[in-house]
Write a structure and sequence with these properties.
The chain is an alpha/beta fold and 220 residues long. The protein folds into 2 domains: 172 residues, SPOUT methyltransferase, trefoil knot domain (Alpha/beta knot, 3-Layer(aba) Sandwich); 39 residues, no CATH class. Helix content is 28%, strand content 21%. It has 7 helices and 9 strands, in the order E-H-H-E-E-E-H-E-H-E-H-E-H-E-E-H. The strands form 3 sheets. It has a 5-stranded parallel sheet, sandwiched between helices. Helix 4 crosses helix 6. The radius of gyration is 22 Å and the shape is elongated. It starts with a strand and ends with a helix. The mean pLDDT is 90.
């Protein structure tokens, strides 16, 4: 099982997505587990600020290091501090581009067997104090050449892409698009769709039953 530990100020922003559909069933089957850690819960008081103005000036606020480090510490305590079985990921626009190869690697079992723990740190506002990633030796990952308001969507993306590679999560292993011949176009019933006075038909080759021609059409 892979245990995803998400450090975020806004767990409510992605919790419903992770609890639904395939990811929800993966949790029910015990293939993955998702836990949330809110840095606000690790402040002396919920009224205390978790963000501070950046040194050197600049717009916006930066998440303070102590509550983030304490939240990660709580996650690692739950995982038993097994260095061989956990990874810490820090989302940053300048990080390594997340791709299918990375998802496959994250989905692999822990080297020494047993559960694997992946800690995902979601920044917000102007980001997280840089010392957090340095102290934790976190991997910097980016989900695309753009900037988002927070790390919650990247965390959901990593969890979704990774979970699909865990055996038993998908109904059929060939359901993974990257491991089967798939077209950018797919069709279902009706054979002829009538819409606003026009007919839109399914390509004839898909109705032919000629598997060789269908495969040729898909690869084209």
């Amino acid at each position: 099982m892979i245990h995803f530990h998400i450090v975020t100020l806004f767990p409510e922003s992605i919790e419903p997505y992770l609890a639904a559909s395939i990811l929800g069933r993966a949790q029910e089957k015990g293939k993955i587990k998702v836990s949330f850690y809110n840095p606000r819960d690790y402040m002396p008081s919920r009224k205390d600020r978790v963000d501070r103005r950046p040194y050197g000036g600049g717009p916006g606020m930066v998440l303070a290091p102590e509550p983030c480090l304490k939240a990660v510490q709580a996650a690692l305590q739950m995982s038993g501090f097994r260095k061989s079985r956990h990874e810490v990921i820090f989302f940053s626009p300048g990080g390594k581009q997340f791709d299918q190869a990375m998802a496959k690697k994250l989905a692999k079992p822990a080297r020494l067997g047993g559960n694997k723990d992946i800690v995902l740190i979601c920044g917000h506002y102007e980001g997280v104090d840089a010392r957090v990633a340095k102290i934790l030796k976190a991997k910097h990952i980016s989900v695309g050449p753009y900037v988002l308001t927070g790390g919650e969507l990247p965390a959901a993306t990593v969890i979704d892409a990774t979970t699909r590679y865990i055996p038993g999560v998908l109904g059929k292993e060939e359901s993974r698009e990257d491991e089967r011949v798939a077209s950018s176009e797919v069709y279902t019933r009706p054979e002829v769709l009538k819409w606003r006075g026009k007919n839109y038909r399914v390509p004839k080759v898909l109705l032919s039953g000629n598997h060789a021609e269908i495969l040729k059409w898909k690869t084209k």
